[in-house]
């Protein structure tokens, strides 16, 4: 998997979608302002492998697809959210309970703060690991949803695992790491530009759509590395 070529292609694809097409960029900004729902719907078109970059049209479909995208993402996030609430909640409760005093003034419980903090750190590590695993599977799941049009296919673990297997687990995970690093660089630049008084907010708003298009195009190429379905 040639990551440099994939990143270059994603950049060119994004540039093709907005540079010189100022009305289209304006429509993408509008899509961003509208709770990002139309923009998410547009992103699904990119996930489908449409090339050249699709036009911003059929807003009704974009809205509906955006809502479906949110639903799929929330379903994937539910286990992680439950785990986070349970584990972190338990750790914080233990921390609060240390040296808790009853209404009578007697000590109800006593514990070692270091142990509680260590436990909290362990729980956070578990949440992070589960989050990474969720991203690994949900990314392919969402693209499967885009390609098949079936929300159920977003959770077809057997098909998702088979697709990752065809890509190669090592290559796939490395591709996500490359994207993660690239996104960090991009976000740092956008954040710095965002510090410009007044213009900063506008700049950040302008770049939401291009960043999402870039990411979707890159991941679409990763998915296509598995070969024909």
Tell me what the structure shows.
The protein is mainly α and 229 residues long. It has one domain. Helix content is 77%, strand content 0%. The protein is built from eight helices and no strands. Helix 5 crosses helix 6. The longest helix is centred in the middle third of the chain and has 39 residues.
| First-residue to last-residue Cα separation | 18 Å
Major sheet, described briefly? none
- Our estimate of the beta-strand percent is under 5%
Number of domains: 1
**Anisotropy-based shape:** globular
What's the average pLDDT?
Answer: 90
Short description:
With 229 residues, the chain is an all-alpha fold. The protein has helices at residues 3-18, 22-33, 37-47, 59-97, 113-148, 157-167, 169-193, 199-224. Helix 3 packs across helix 4 (59-97), helix 3 runs parallel beside helix 8 and helix 4 runs antiparallel to helix 5.
Could you list some keywords that capture this structure?
229 residues; mainly alpha; 77% helix
List the helices and strands and how they pair.
Layout: H1 3-18, H2 22-33, H3 37-47, H4 59-97, H5 113-148, H6 157-167, H7 169-193, H8 199-224
